[in-house]
């Protein structure tokens, strides 16, 4: 786990985490296991985001949820924990490389039965979902070039008042000074969202920036 974020110095972040819902043993184990993975360890959803995902899913009374980019399972675990009884989470990833870590955690947390993991390009999984507005909550944290398409597929399936959350909308600050292809994609995405009359957007300075998009 990173000890600071773009915006918050390490001591203040420690204070923030110490005064929010603490990590439990299952979350600490996923963090530990993910930290040993070469090159991709930093992909993991931060603890403060996990707590927020659970709270949002619970507050929305979510029965139908989607996680785009489930990786080693942290965000899916967080959302699944916030679902109301009988709720289902469709977790998407393009590879099952990290499925063993995720499944072990979901099993240990007692939420494995609520999670339907679909290994395929997420856009295919989303297009195959029922077309009517039934989703309460979704979280998107996969390939940034796909964000606009994910938004289009998810928003028409989201019920009024439902929320779609997008991670990494700051691109480590590079939305102000783009360097990579993915930075340009997120800049375009952020611009489009704020002009879309179907939604209200609140961009939060959580971790690497997280936009909450509510269907009006
Ligand atoms: C930043 S990680 C997600 C972190 C995760 N939300 C967590 O809680 O730790 C991005 C994930 O998106 C997946 N991914 C990338 N491109 C994808 C695509 N086109 N379709 C589905 N998943 C994709 C990657 O395999 C990776 O597991």
Automatic annotation (TrEMBL):
KW Metal-binding (keyword) present: no
Transmembrane segments: none
GO molecular function term, any single one: methyltransferase activity
Entry-linked InterPro entries: Cation-dep_OMT, SAM-dependent_MTases_sf, SAM_O-MeTrfase
Residues making up the signal peptide according to the UniProt record: none
Keywords on record: Methyltransferase, S-adenosyl-L-methionine, Transferase
A single BP term in Gene Ontology: methylation
Name of the molecule in the record: Class I SAM-dependent methyltransferase
């Amino acid at each position: 786990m990173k000890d600071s974020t773009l915006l918050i110095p390490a001591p203040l972040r420690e204070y923030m985490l110490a005064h929010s819902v603490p990590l439990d043993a299952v979350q600490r184990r996923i963090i530990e296991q993910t930290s040993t993975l070469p090159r991709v360890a930093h992909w993991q959803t931060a603890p403060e985001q996990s707590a927020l995902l659970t709270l949002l899913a619970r507050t929305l009374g979510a029965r139908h949820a989607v996680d785009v980019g489930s990786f080693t399972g942290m965000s899916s675990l967080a959302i699944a924990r916030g679902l109301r009884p009988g709720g289902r989470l469709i977790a998407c990833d393009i590879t099952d490389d990290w499925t063993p870590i995720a499944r072990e955690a979901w099993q240990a947390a007692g939420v494995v039965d609520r999670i339907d993991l679909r290994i395929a390009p997420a856009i295919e999984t989303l297009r195959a979902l029922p077309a009517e507005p039934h989703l309460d909550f979704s979280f998107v944290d996969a390939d940034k070039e796909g964000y606009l398409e994910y938004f289009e597929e998810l928003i028409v399936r989201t019920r009024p008042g439902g929320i779609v959350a997008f991670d990494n909308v700051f691109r480590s600050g590079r939305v102000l000074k783009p360097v990579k292809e993915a930075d340009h994609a997120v800049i375009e995405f952020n611009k489009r969202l704020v002009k879309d009359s179907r939604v209200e957007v609140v961009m939060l300075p959580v971790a690497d920036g997280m936009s909450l998009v509510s269907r009006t």
